[in-house]
Predict the structure.
Amino acid sequence: MTARNPVTEQDLEEVFKDDPDFGIRLLHEDFREVILRYIKKHGWGLQLADWMDIYSQTILEMIQKSREPGFDHRKPLALAFHIAKCRTRDMLRRRKHRANPDTDAILDCVAKDFSESDIGIKLRYPDSVVWEEFQQNLYEVIAALPGRQRIVARVFIDNYEDFRERDTYTPLAELVSNITGKPESVVAVKNAWLEAKQKIVKELTRRGFNFLEAE
């Protein structure tokens, strides 16, 4: 079988000019590793799940922009880099803002939010739980979820502090809509979270975090 010639940035630009949807596909298939290396370069201190989440957000935003009237097809890879850098900076800022060395306080907070809200996860954690280990495994499990469930779950985990004490799913739907670039119904987002929640709890339990319970 004859190997396909490498796709150049000029090729990518021409494809985006004629067919933006195919351009997105080509960007993902041929420039995925390039974009991920760029994200890793600017996202030291983040984890693999974070890098993959940023990449997903970058592609989603590229899809949204490529479908807008007057989209400039020139230098699509540079635009992807710009979006990735912005999303990386946003995530680093959130991580810094929410950094808290008090593991017990964090677990208490998460337990309260998950068990007393309609989110429906109860945390029964032993004293030996290491929050950093739990967090790393949580993000790994979320990164392996199907696309829509991954987005909804990650948005909830990253933003639950912002809508604590409020109706959970309405602001969650608004945040997901900001990422997907289209209206998201509360019912659809709620269903996606409920499905994701069951998978998250099942996989974390399999990994030894048996203090979780999905209602």
Summary: The chain has a mean pLDDT of 77. The first strand starts at residue 121 and ends at 123. The chain has nine helices and two strands. Strands lie at 121-123, 212-214.
